[in-house]
Structure formats: structure tokens, C-alpha cells
Model the fold of this input.
Amino acid sequence: MWRVFGHAHEADWEAGLARVTASAELPLQWVENPEWLKLCDRFIPQAKAPSAKVLMKRVMPQVLRGIKATAKEESCGAVGTLQCDGWIGENSHHLLGNSCNAEELLKQIIESINQVESEWGVIIIACTTDASGESHKFPHLVTPDCLAHQVGC
Done:
């Protein structure tokens, strides 16, 4: 009746839990919820629920690497845009802080364009900036200013 989970099934199960966690914006601790664990024990006893720590430290980064690899493969040869106001890294740290001046922002934009074009094979055609004056350096790109910086909220 029930198939025994092998390593491949366990990896698929964990990846599925990571995707559900992210897509439903669930807190990581949901996988340790006693009601969830009872449900798993009753209906899918061969499936071991990973801990929140395992989900965060091993499973989600693994799934993210797979998603990035697929995105890179599918994006190669495409055109793309960059946005350079409010970048946040995978670790939730801002890549460009408020103390960034126009010269530093220009340097970051150039590095980003080079990285995306060389590593992803994407041709950058536009870059939205925060209106700090660096956009005139890119006459070959469409460079709209960030609307929020124009409104003055």
C-alpha cells in the first residue's frame, strides 16, 4: 500500500515542504507543529518531517540553488532589466545601504550589469534607479527613475 521512502523521495518531500513554506508564507516552525506531525504520522508515516532548522539551513538553500540554476538556464539569451533601489540579499541584509552615494551606486550598477550579462547571459536593456544622477552614464539603456522617489511621499 505505502511505498517506502528512499533518499530521492525524502529529498522530493523536503523540497515540497520548502516550496509550500515559501509559497504560503508559513513560519519555518510550522513543520514542528504537533498537529502537523500527528497528521504525518497517521497518513504518511514513512515521510519524516524535517525540523525548522534543517528546513532553513539545508533544504531551502538547496531548493533555492535549483531554482536559480533553472532561472539562469531559462534566462540565457533573454533581455532583462535591473532595479537598484532597495536591494535585499538572500540573508535579508541590504546590499546597498542608505549611505550609498551616487558614485558607489554607479559602481554597483556596473558590477551588476556585468555579472548578470556574464553569469546569466541576459542582455540588460533598462535599469531603474533612485534618481541620484547616475542614469546619464547609461545612454544605451532605458533608465526610468523610481516613481516613489519622484512622488515625494
User: Anything to note?
Assistant: The mean pLDDT is 83. The chain is about 50% helix and 5% strand. Helices lie at 7-23, 34-43, 52-75, 102-120, 147-151. The longest strand covers residues 123-128.
